[in-house]
Amino acid sequence: MGKLIKMSEEVIMSKIYEIRSKKVMIDRDLAELYGVETRVLKQAVRRNLKRFPKDFMFEMTNDEFEN
C-alpha cells in the first residue's frame, strides 16, 4: 500500500464517527491516511478478507451518509 501520511491526532479524531453504535472511519478518510486511492484500499481489503474481522466494514445507507 501507499505511504502513511502524517496527520495530527486531532485531524484523525475528527474523522471518527459513531454509526450503528460503533466508532468508524469512512473509507475515503482511511485511504487518505494511507496515501492511496479509495478504490485501492477497498480492493486490498476485499483481497484479504480473511485477515479482517467480519464486522470490519459495512456499507452505510443514504440516510446514514447524509447525517
Overview of the structural elements:
It contains four helices and two strands. The protein is 43% helix and 12% strand. It has a two-stranded antiparallel sheet with strand order 1-2. It is an alpha+beta fold and 67 residues long. The protein starts with 8 loop residues before the first helix and ends with a helix. The protein has one domain (1-53). It has helices at 9-14, 27-34, 38-47, 62-66, and strands at 16-19, 22-25.
Question: Which secondary structure elements does this structure contain, and how are they paired or packed?
Answer:
Elements: H1 9-14, E1 16-19, E2 22-25, H2 27-34, H3 38-47, H4 62-66
Antiparallel strand pairs: 1-2
Properties at a glance:
two-stranded antiparallel sheet, 12% strand, single chain, alpha+beta, 67 residues, 2 strands, 4 helices
Shape by Cα distribution = globular
**First-last Cα distance:** 30 Å
The overall pLDDT average reads 87
Q: What is the number of strand segments?
A: 2
Computed Rg: 13 Å
The ordered string of helix (H) and strand (E) elements is HEEHHH
- SS-derived structural category: alpha+beta
Spans of 5+ residues with little confidence (pLDDT < 50)?
none
Largest sheet: 2 strands, antiparallel
Q: What is the domain tally?
A: 1
Number of helices: 4
Helix percent reads 40-55%
Largest sheet, spatial ordering of strands: 1-2
Approximately how much beta-strand content do the residues carry?
5-15%
